Amino acid sequence: MTEYVVLSSILFTIGAVGVLVRRNAIVVFMCVELMLNASNLALVAFAKQHGNLEGQVAAFFVMVVAAAEVVVGLAIIMTIFRSRRSASVDDASLLKF
Amino acid sequence: MFVLETGTEIPVVAPSGADGVLGLVWLVIALPLLGAAVLLLGGRLTDRWGHWLGTAMPVGSFVISLLMFVDLQGRDEEDRQVVKHLYDWIHVGGLRVDMDLLYDPLAALFLLLITGVGSLIHVYSIGYMEHDPRRRRFFGYLNLFVAAMLMLILSENYLGLFLGWEGVGLASYLLIGFWQHKHSAAQAAKKAFVINRVGDMGMVTAIFLAFTLFGSTSFTEISQRAGGASETAMTVLGILLLVGACGKSAQVPLQAWLLDAMEGPTPVSALIHAATMVTAGVYLIVRSNFVFDRAPDAQTAVVVVAVVSILWGAAIGCAKDDIKKALAGSTMSQIGYMMLGAGLGPAGYAFAIFHLLTHGFFKANMFLGAGSVMHGMDDDVDMRHYGLLQKAMPVTFLTFAMGYLAIIGFPGFSGFWSKDKIIEAAIADNWVVGVAAMLGAGVTGFYMTRLMLMTFFSQKRWRKGVHPHESPQVMTIPLIVLAALSVLGGGLLLGNWIIDWLTPVVGEEPEHDLPIPALAITLLVLLVVAAGVATAVALFQRQRVPEVAPTEVSFVTRAARAELYGNEINEGLVVGPGRRLVSGLLVFDRSGADGLFMGGGATVGALGDVLRKVQTGYVRSYALSVLIGVVLVAAAMLAVQL
Fold first, then answer.
1. Number of compact structural domains in chain A
2. Less Cβ crowding at N or C end of chain A, within 10 Å?
3. Which residues span the domain enclosing A79?
4. Cβ-nearest to A94 among B617, B623, B624
C-alpha cells in the first residue's frame, strides 16, 4: 500500500517540477497528464484499501476530464504554433501588464 | 379659553362653511391669476389688448370683494368667519394641509385694499407705461403679484400663506428688475430677493415649529390648541414670525432692500413697496395674534423693532434728494407705526390695520403723484431739479397735497386718526415708546414738508429742455380717487366701526388708563408735527434750495444720506464674514477634504502600479503561484487537523 502512495507522490512531483521548469508546451502538457495520473493512482490505491468504489469512480472522472483537456489544450498549442512558429510557453507571454 | 391679564379673551378662529356669494371667494384669486397666465403665456399675441385684460382682472376681483364685503357685513358678528375648502392639498402621514380660503373681517378689509388700490394702480399704469415696449409683460407681472398677495391674505393656513408670501416676493423681484437692462435695477432686484430669503428662513422655521407644536399649520387648529403650549415655545414662534415680517416689511435689521427697490417702475413702488406687499409683515403679526398674545416677550421684540424702524426710516426720509427714496424711507417709518400697533397686542391690532389702510391710500397716492411728477420731468427723480411745480401740474399738486396732509396727520385727514390712535395706545403701554413714536411724527412732518416744498414750491430749478406738464387723465383719475380716500379714510373710525369690525378676529380692545388725557396727547402730537413743519419751512422755503446737494454737512446728515450705514452694517456683519467663511471653507475643501480623497485614490493607484508587476504573462510563474497556494492550503488544513 505504501509503495503505491510513494510512487504516486514521486510521479506527481516529477509532473509538478516538469510543469515549472520545462518550456516546451507539449512537454508541459505531458507533465500535467503525469500529475493527473499520479492522483488517479492514489485514488485507486486508496479505493482498494478502503474496499469501496468511490475512488475508482473518481479516477474515471479524472480520465474523462483529462481527455477533454487534451482535446482543447492540443488545439490551442497547434494554433499558437501556427502563428508563432514556436511551442515555447515563454514566448506566449503577451497577456501581462 | 385663555384669558389675558387685562381680562380679555384671545379669540379663536372658528369658521363656518362658505355659501352664497361668499362661495365665490376663490374667484378673487383666480381672476388675476388667469390674467397673469394669459398675459405671460400668450406672448406677443396679447400685446395690443393685454393692458386692458390686465386691468379688468383686478377690477373684477374688486367687484367680487365688494359683494362679499356687503354680504359679510349683513351677517351676525359670530358668523363672520367663513372657510371655503377648495381641495385637499397635502395629505402625508400626520401632515394634512388643505387648500382652504379663510374669509373674515380682517381678510375682507385687505381684499378691498389690495383689489381697490391695485385696480387704480393698474389704470394708472396704462398711462405710465404707455411708451414701454414691454407693457404687456408688466401687466402680467402685476396680475401675478395681485394673485399672490390675495393668496397670502386668504389662506387659512401658514403654508398657503407662505405660498402667497413667496409669490409676492417673486413678483416683487421681477418688477424691481423690470428694467433689467439697467445694472442698478438688476442689482436692486437681486438684493431684495436675497434679503427677503433671510426673512423667509424665519418664516419657514416658524411653520416647522408650529407644526411640531400643534401638528397643524391651520389657523383654526393652532388658535384652538395654542392655550396648551408653553410661553417659551410661543415666544420662539413669535420671534421667528417677526423675523419673517421684518424681511417682507423692510423693518430693521432687514430694511436695506426697500430703498434700492425704488429702481422699479413707480406704479410698482406704489402698489408693492408702499400699499400692499410691505404690509404683509403687519398682517402676519395681526393674523397670528393667538401666538403673540401669549408671548409678551415676542411682543416687546416687535415694539423694539417698530420703534427703531420708525426713527430709522424717518432719518433716511430727511436726507434723500431722490423723491422716491425719500418716500421709501417714509414707508419704512410708517410701517414701523403699524408694527408698533401690532406689537401692543389687542390694544393696537385694530389701529395697526387702520393705519395700514389709510397708509395704503395716502402713500399709494403720493407714490403715483411722484410718478406723475417724474413723467412730466423726463424721469428725473432728483428733487433739487424740481421746484414750483404747483402751477405746471395742478392736479398732481392738489392730490399730492391731500396725501401730504394725511401723512403728517393734519386734523381731519385719515393719517391724523390712525397715527394718533397708535401713539395713544403706545403711551398707555410705555411712555418711552410713546415719546419715540411722537418724535417720529414730528420728523415725518419735517421730511414730508421738505419733500413738498422742494417739489411744488420754492424756486424753479428745472434742467434745460424740461417742460413739466400735467399727466393724462388715465393717470390723474386714480390720483383723484386716492386723494379722496386719503382725506376720507379716517371715516373708518366713525363710531369705532373698524374696532368693532375687527373684534371677532383680534379680540376686544382692553380699557387702558392714560397718564394724561387723550386730547392732551393729540394736541402734543400736533405741536410736535407743527414744529417739524415749521423747521422745514424755515430751511426750504425761506432759503434758496441749492441745486447740488451741499457736501459740507454734519455727520448726522452724512449718515442719513448713507441710509444710516445699513448697507455697510450688512456688509461688515454678514456679507464680509460670510465671504471669508466661504473662502475658508473652499481652502479646507480643496486641501482637506479633496486631499483626503485624492490622496486615498493616489495611494491605491500606486499600490496597483506595484502589484501589477505580478502579472508577468509567463505561464510557468502562474503555475508556481498556484503550487505555492496549494501547498499553503494543504499545510493550513493539516495544521488545523493536528
1. 1
2. N
3. 2-84
4. B617
CB contacts, 8 Å: A93 with chain B: 616-619
Q: Which three cell numbers stand for residue B34?
A: 388667469
Closest CB to A89 among B612, B619, B627: B619
Give pLDDT tens digits for B284-331. Answer: 999 999 999 999 999 999 999 999 999 999 999 999 999 999 999 999
Residue B6 has pLDDT above 90, yes or no: no
Sort B635 into a burial class: Cβ within 10 Å, 0-12 / 13-18 / 19+: exposed
Starting at the edge strand found earlier in the chain, the sheet holding B95-103 runs: B16-17, B82-92, B95-103
pLDDT-derived band of residue B1, with 50, 70 and 90 as boundaries?
very low
User: Per the CB < 8 Å rule, is B616 touching A93?
Assistant: yes
Q: Hey, are the CB atoms on B620 and A93 less than 8 Å from each other?
A: no
Bridge partners for B83 per DSSP: B17, B102
Could you say which of A28, A90, A97 has the minimum Cβ distance to residue B615?
A: A97
Dump pLDDT digits (tens) for A37-94: 999 999 999 999 999 899 999 999 999 999 999 999 999 999 989 988 888 888 888 8
B634: Cβ contacts below 8 Å, ≥ 6 apart: none
Cell of residue B330, nine digits: 417714509
CATH number at residue A32: 1.10.287.3510
In a domain, A8, yes or no: yes
A91 domain residue, yes or no: no
Q: Are the C-beta atoms of residues B254 and B165 closer than 8 Å to each other? A: no
Question: Which ipTM did the prediction report?
Answer: 0.87
**Smallest CA–CA separation between A52 and chain B, in Å?**
25
Q: How far is B603 from chain A (nearest CA, A)?
A: 19
Q: Do A20 and B627 touch (CB under 8 A)?
A: yes
In a domain? residue A89:
no
> What's the confidence (pLDDT) of residue B109?
94
Query: Does residue A96 belong to any structural domain of this protein?
Result: no
The nearest CA of chain B is from the CA of A57 a distance in Å of 24
